[in-house]
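From the methods appendix. Each design record in this collection lists the tokenized structure first, followed by the designed amino acid sequence. Records were kept in a plain field format so they could be parsed without special tools. The example shown here is representative of the layout used throughout.

RECORD:
FOLD TOKENS (457 positions):
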């Protein structure tokens, strides 16, 4: 036994070490605006000079970072707009590689703003700039630095969303260089927009964006009970990309050794939608993570337990299914086995227990941290003996009305049904009897835990 535990611990340790040794490969593509508008003056200097200087300074800090590859794509740098608009004026100047910041800085120094602003076309072509991820563990990030909006009739929002949904890139970052106020809304659907209205702010924003691109930060999910305390746990949580809908990570909620919700390492690049897979699920949208700051995500998930009992029967031996629905709603939330105890969000539920006939119990209240027990009687056994093969049905008698319970087999002369206690009638006609007058009907009573013989002859 000790040897088995040791092997398990070593396997877990090995898995944890491998996870630490294999961080993702982060690939950042800088898309730089070299269109004619970058010649404009920004705080007494041409925008191109300021942006080039500050980006080059930021690149110096990235030179020796492991598991990082950089690339540079530029648009508007080849054809002068006075010679006609060239909407294909976009080029990958420096392909992805590690420790290549000097190459990028050299290309930045050569740039002379000339042309137009084909942002949609640039984003489309950027999809091919990212090499195939051979490790299966890559983060592809675009940082777009621009002072203008689309001028070639393209739809940057649609292109960005398509790239995200195809899992080619994460949500892009856009840094607006002295961008006019009325243009900022154009970028809200493209990615995370940062307004660098001043040179000092550009430097700060660039640092924030690069920090988000490189670093995970911490978060915890508080699953809140009715009193607002984070006491709920052991629930699977799915983290989705709010923009693309892509599933990012699953965590089974855990309390640490101090009884507090466990700390998670989260990528701050995304805006998240977090779903706690309670029954029914609970979620929270538009969650942003600030790099370097511990984020607490609170989701109200007050729960109670539901269990079933059948008098005289060991629950472990009873696999009877129960359909659970929200009160007044026909949509199935869960199918619970009679032998299981299941947690549900606090509220009222309708139950359909698949006895014969069905047992319906409505408006069952589930309350915080309480176990609601539903008890039903043990069924009885009815054995039907027929005069040969034939056509038979079984009805329950309710207020002098017959309600269908079961159709008997046409090819069995003897069969058995487990029925809930009550008054029944069986109707049968042999297959060889060609007249309705040969119909047989037998009333019978089913008692909990007892057997009854029904002779249909």
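DESIGN:
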């Amino acid at each position: 036994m000790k040897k088995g535990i040791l092997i398990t611990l070593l396997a877990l340790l090995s898995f944890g070490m491998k996870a630490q040794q294999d961080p993702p490969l982060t690939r950042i593509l800088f898309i730089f605006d070299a269109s004619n508008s970058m010649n404009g003056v920004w705080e007494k200097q041409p925008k191109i000079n300021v942006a080039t200087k500050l980006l080059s300074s930021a690149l110096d800090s990235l030179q020796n970072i492991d598991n990082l590859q950089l690339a540079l794509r530029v648009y508007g740098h080849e054809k002068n707009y006075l010679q006609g608009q060239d909407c294909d004026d976009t080029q990958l100047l420096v392909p992805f590689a590690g420790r290549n910041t000097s190459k990028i800085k050299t290309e930045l120094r050569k740039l002379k703003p000339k042309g137009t602003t084909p942002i949609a076309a640039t984003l489309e072509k950027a999809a091919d700039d990212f090499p195939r991820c051979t490790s299966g563990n890559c983060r592809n990030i675009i940082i777009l630095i621009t002072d203008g909006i689309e001028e070639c009739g393209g739809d940057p929002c649609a292109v960005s969303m398509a790239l995200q949904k195809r899992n080619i890139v994460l949500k892009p970052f856009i840094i607006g260089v002295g961008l006019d106020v009325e243009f900022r809304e154009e970028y809200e659907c493209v990615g995370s927009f940062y307004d660098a209205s001043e040179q000092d702010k550009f430097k700060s924003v660039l640092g924030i964006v690069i920090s988000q691109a490189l670093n995970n930060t911490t978060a915890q999910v508080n699953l809140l009970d009715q009193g607002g305390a984070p006491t709920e746990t052991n629930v699977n949580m799915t983290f989705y990309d709010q923009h693309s809908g892509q599933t990012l990570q699953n965590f089974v909620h855990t309390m640490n050794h101090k009884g507090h919700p466990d700390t998670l390492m989260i990528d701050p690049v995304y805006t998240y939608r977090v779903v706690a897979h309670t029954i029914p699920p609970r979620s929270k949208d538009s969650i942003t993570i600030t790099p370097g700051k511990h984020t607490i995500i609170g989701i109200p998930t007050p729960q109670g337990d539901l269990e079933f009992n059948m008098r005289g029967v060991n629950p472990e031996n009873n696999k009877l299914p129960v359909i659970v629905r929200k009160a007044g709603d026909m949509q199935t939330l869960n199918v619970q086995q009679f032998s299981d105890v299941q947690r549900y969000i606090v509220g009222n539920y309708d139950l359909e227990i698949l006895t014969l006939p069905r047992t319906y119990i409505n408006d069952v209240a589930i309350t915080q941290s309480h176990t609601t027990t539903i008890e039903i009687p043990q069924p009885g056994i009815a054995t039907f003996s027929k005069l040969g093969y034939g056509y038979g049905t079984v009805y329950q008698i309710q207020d002098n009305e017959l309600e269908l319970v079961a159709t008997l087999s046409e090819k069995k002369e003897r069969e058995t049904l487990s029925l809930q206690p009550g008054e029944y009638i069986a109707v049968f006609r042999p297959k060889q009897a060609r007249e309705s007058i040969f119909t047989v009907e037998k009333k019978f009573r089913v008692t909990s835990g007892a057997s009854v013989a029904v002779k249909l002859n």
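APPENDIX NOTE: The mean pLDDT is 89.
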